[in-house]
What we know:
Blueprint: H1 2-18, E1 28-29, E2 38-42, E3 51-52, E4 62-67, E5 73-77, E6 83-87, E7 92-93, E8 96-97, E9 103-107, E10 114-117
Parallel strand pairs: 2-4
Antiparallel strand pairs: 1-7, 2-3, 4-8, 5-6, 5-9, 9-10
Amino acid sequence: MERNFIEVLLLTVLLGVSGCGGESSPTTTTSPSPAGAFTITVLRQNGSQSFSPNPAMAGGQMVVFRNVDTVTHRVRLNDLSIDTGDIAPGATSGAVQMPASGTNYHCSIHPDMIGAVTAASGEPAPPCEGIYCD
């Protein structure tokens, strides 16, 4: 009985180690956020309620998006200058530098999910323009 337990444990460890190889997305990680990065959580709810905080007071800062939802999300700035890549459930994006002037963003998989970042000066986010705005 003990031998079976050890064999199962060894097999589990080996399978876990073998799953660590290969390619991975450079923009999505489950590791802790970089020190000092501002975290915005993603949970599809209702348009601008899908990101928290929203608006985020993070103009000019490094930001990560933490997906606390049960489905994949992908955050893009409305001007398409930043794309986090797919963020799996429970994962956190790589850090991205937000424009100091503030910005608007959306989930490219669920375009009704919208968010904003205020300017570093404390000014409100720029007006949302384009197809992703309410």
